Amino acid sequence: MLPLLLEQLTFAAGGTPIIKGISARIEAGLRTVILGPNGAGKSVLMRLCHGLLRPTSGRVVWSGLRSGDPRRHQAMVFQRPVMLRRSALANVVYGLKLAGKSQRESELRAMDVLEVVGLEEHARRPARVLSGGEQQRLALARAWALGPDVLFLDEPTANLDPASTQDIENIIQAIHASGTKIIMTTHNLGQARRLGDEILFIGGGRLLEHAPVDRFFREPASSEAAAFIKGELPWH
Amino acid sequence: MIGDLPIYAMHCMTSLWEALAAAWGLIAGFDATLAQIVGLSLQVSLSAVLIAACIGLPLGAAIAVERFPGRQTLIVLLNALMGLPPVVVGLLVYLLLSRAGPLGSLGILFTPAAMVIAQTVLITPIIAALSRQTIEDAWREYDEQLRSLGARRLNAAMTLIWDTRFSLLTIVLAGFGRAAAEVGAVMIVGGNIDGVTRVMTTTIALETSKGDLPLALGLGIILIGLVLLLNMAAALIREAAQRRYG
After folding, report:
1. Once rounded to an integer, what is the mean pLDDT over residues A126-145?
2. How many domains is chain A built from?
3. What is the ipTM of this complex?
4. Sorting pLDDT into bands at 50, 70 and 90, what band is A48?
5. Three-class secondary structure assignment of chain A
6. pLDDT above 70 for A234
7. Banded pLDDT at B29 (limits 50, 70, 90)
8. Which residues span the domain enclosing A136?
9. Domain CATH number, residue A91
10. Size of interface A-B (CB pairs under 8 A)
11. Do the chains contact at A52 and B150, CB–CB below 8 Å?
């Protein structure tokens, strides 16, 4: 599946350019954090990578994929989890059955991942009555259950309190440890440091910097990144 | 002249109370004519709402999730059809089913079947238009998540119908209420034939004009009670679903 190549990627919505020519090579193994201020185009870039949006020009190439549908090998967790009006277990089973698994196989797998994210006691409860943090854990379980090679996470903790954020970050680490490539967006510098191996810094629809996380924070090459780090530090 | 007025008013009041009492007697005594009329009403309107739901819900879902040329026009048209006057529907179905009409050979004019067709035509747009709106709102929320999970259009449409099922049930109940309460369409295509095609609304219209108030009132009370019951059921279902499923 990997590396993922972005080739002169652009995207415009209703004539307004949002992504303005991004090229990058994203390798396997590293946790990639797409960092940038609000409105920089992080979420749009991620949706282009995941195939939810079609680029206006340029290409998204999964250069390691020999054959088959790249969508089968990736999953995504959204900022606001979208829960179907059914039980927590059924939400996970839903994704597995769409992927072609049998009911029985799906349920066994679903129970496994619910246990890993600490929701086994809530398996039979309706997903929508769970708390925000529980719903996001469920969303992670639903994505992880599919056994994706690549997991996209779009600001997965933006709406959560510190305790829930900690839970989510632990699960993301576990998914990374299981061998799934993590690509996530955040505007939270602390989270980028904790979870990232490399940073793609986006501003105004352009890729301004692509660097290992420690170098990015120690000596940012672009003035925008330097200002972003400095501007945010007092609050984190 | 002026002195007569109170007596006249009192007479009206008395006859109203008498009529109400008589109506209550008919209901409480399970009057055979009354029961037969109510039974036919329910049979016709339930059949109509069942058929209309089978057409309207998938149609609403399809328009909600598909993108095709002329979609916006279709939505406007469908919304406009919600306000279709029953008498006009009655007239159109009458023309279709009359001996000289394209479906005249079926010979079902002035039968309950014709009434079912008329009511189906009347409420299918209502169910389709309202369910389209409901499902499209849900689709906006679910779209990316479902596509991310690899759902195709048909999967997505079915998931959306299932997930909005309580709202859709309310819509179907509203359709039933509209069917059971309309008079124009069934009057024209049914003919209001005693013991054959006489339903609650057409009987009320006829008996009132004949001056037989007890039967008209009794049916009126049942009709209002039915509509009230439906709305209560819809409210309860929604509330329970909200509590249960969020």
Report:
1. 96
2. 1
3. 0.93
4. very high
5. CCCEEEEEEEEEECCEEEEEEEEEEECCCCCEEEECCCCCCHHHHHHHHHCCCCCCEEEEEECCCCCCCHHHHEEEECCCCCCCCCEHHHHHHHHHHHCCCCHHHHHHHHHHHHHHCCCHHHCCCEHHHCCHHHHHHHHHHHHHHCCCCEEEEECCCCCCCHHHHHHHHHHHHHHHHCCCEEEEEECCHHHHHHHCCEEEEEECCEEEEEEEHHHHHHCCCCHHHHHHHHHHHHHC
6. no
7. confident
8. 4-235
9. 3.40.50.300
10. 48
11. no
